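User: Can you model how S-adenosylmethionine sits in this protein?
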Amino acid sequence: MFEAHQHARMLADATRLTAFHDAMAEVITEGDRVLDAGTGTGILAAMASRLTTGTVVAVEYLEDTASFAKQALRDSHLDRVEVVRGNAVQADIGTPPDVVVSETIGSLGPEENIVGLTRALRQRYPDIRAFIPSRLRVMAEPVVSAEAAALRASVMGAFTREQPGGMSFATVLPRAEHALGGQIITARLTDATSAGPAEPLVEYDLGTTPEADFSQTLSLGDSPANAVHLYFEAPLSSTVTLSSHRAAAFTHWGHSYVVRPPNASTVTISYRSADRRFVCRWDRTAETD
Ligand SMILES: C[S@@+](CC[C@H](N)C(=O)[O-])C[C@H]1O[C@@H](n2cnc3c(N)ncnc32)[C@H](O)[C@@H]1O
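Assistant: Here's the modeled complex, given as structure tokens:
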């Protein structure tokens, strides 16, 4: 099934499309062969085809999505884009590409396997000149956030207010607090201030870094932070960087954060590519059970 809602959100994200367009205009030179790895609706391949007379191959592994892109490109008279259904790493795309563009960036960066995908493409085509994006960093910034405070108040309020049937969550309240701290929330941070330096949790050199897994512990010490804002930075070219930081132009990726449980001072943030997900664990000083 073609995921119309997700693709509509991506097509409506002008910040994202402008960033990719400007980076491609900087990196792609006349005659370059371009591979759009994970083409979705074909939008990036369409933009690339205006920047080169070389072949543009758009690979998409979902059948309905590939056929949607194929028809839209044909109807737009963008006949030079060749849509191939399959895995971008294994598909037969003819001549090796000079430039690979891939918008397979997850909520925090690696969850759509951009690290493994670009690495496998580099191994298959050693002469690729450039990847767009070229790098990907997952960042963490301690913040004082009104949104995080309101979320915590609302969640903890649900467990402390009187419940029907004589039910009480009093003894398990610390567990709820700790569990909330482990969840990555995606919303919009409009009222947050920095409460410590932003730090990279991991930086991937796309095409080269072999695997995405990492685990990093952040110490908040006596910082007043009530949350840690998690975001990615993706340099697309030497002058264009796409970022989901709260102060950057808002994108469909939204703003992610974890809520700090009271008295917790360290958080370990890990990513496992086998699960394609992040795990956040706070120290358990706030939990008394
Ligand atoms: C985040 S969407 C982006 C779509 C489009 N490039 C854009 O910028 O709007 C990623 C797309 O890549 C496809 N995809 C992810 N990994 C792929 C792979 N290894 N081979 C082919 N398609 C892939 C997904 O099915 C999805 O349609």
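A couple of observations from the model: The radius of gyration is 22 Å. Residues 146-160 form the longest helix (15 residues).
User: Helpful, thanks.
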